[in-house]
Amino acid sequence: MNTLSTEQDDVHGELMEISLGPHHPSTHGVFRMNITLDGEIVVKLKPVFGYLHRNHEKIAEGNTYLAAIPYTDRLDYLCSLTNNWAYVHAVETLAAIAVPERAECLRIILGELARIANHACLVGFLLNDLGTSFTPLLYSLRERERMLDLIEELTGSRMMCNFFRFGGLRSDIPEDWLQRLRTYLEGPFARFLDEQDALLSGNEILLARTQGVGILPPALAVQAGITGPMLRASGVPYDIRKVDQYSLYKRFEYKVPIGAHGDTYDRYMMRMLEMRESVKIIQQAMDALKNAQGSHIDPKARNQGLRPKAGEAYARMESPKGELGFHLVSDGSAKPYRFRIRPPSLINLTALEDICLGQTLADTVVILGSVDIVLGEVDR
Amino acid sequence: MSTTSPEEILTHLLEKFPEGSVSLVKDTGSAMQHSLLLQHEKAVAIANTLRDDPQFRFDYCSNVTGMDWPKEGFLEAVYHLYSIEKKTAKPLILRMRTKGRDSKIPADLAMPSFTSVWRSCELQEREVYDLYGILYSSHPDLRRLLMWDEFQGHPMRKDYAPPAENPPAA
Question: Do B120 and A350 touch (CB under 8 A)?
Answer without folding.
Answer: yes
